[in-house]
Amino acid sequence: MPTTWDDTKVLHGEIGKYITVARKKGGDWYVGSITNAESRTLRIPLSFLDSQAVYKAFIYSDGGPEIKTKTHVRAEEKDVTSNEILSFEIKAGGGVALRLEKK
């Protein structure tokens, strides 16, 4: 994870409830969402990405008992573009993290 950033965008949030922030370093973006003690569905629009590019998304989200690791974090990868909106079921006190690498 970089320690300095080229750009920062607050994608959405509500004070005391949840927030989603995207930060850019070079051609890559890092996105994080967290929520309070309420579970919720968060939809993350990727419209801030370069519209001419495809990105490889590394997604780390709330899992559950079906994820057989100590932290129960679901890890997945997929290709995405700026036209997409990703949707996540965030558990109470949980969150999601994305690393979006420009291909």
Total helices: the number is 0
CATH architecture: Sandwich
Strand order of the largest sheet: 1-2-3-8-5-6
- Assign the structural class, choosing from mainly alpha, mainly beta, alpha/beta, alpha+beta, or little secondary structure: mainly beta
Give structural notes:
- The protein contains no helices and eight strands.
- The chain is mainly β.
- It has one domain: Sandwich (Immunoglobulin-like), CATH 2.60.40.
List the helices and strands and how they pair.
Layout: E1 7-14, E2 18-25, E3 28-35, E4 40-45, E5 55-62, E6 73-80, E7 85-90, E8 95-102
Antiparallel strand pairs: 1-2, 2-3, 3-8, 4-7, 5-6, 5-8
Q: What features would you highlight for this structure?
A:
mainly beta; 103 residues; Immunoglobulin-like; two-stranded antiparallel ribbon
In short:
The chain is mostly beta strands and 103 residues long.
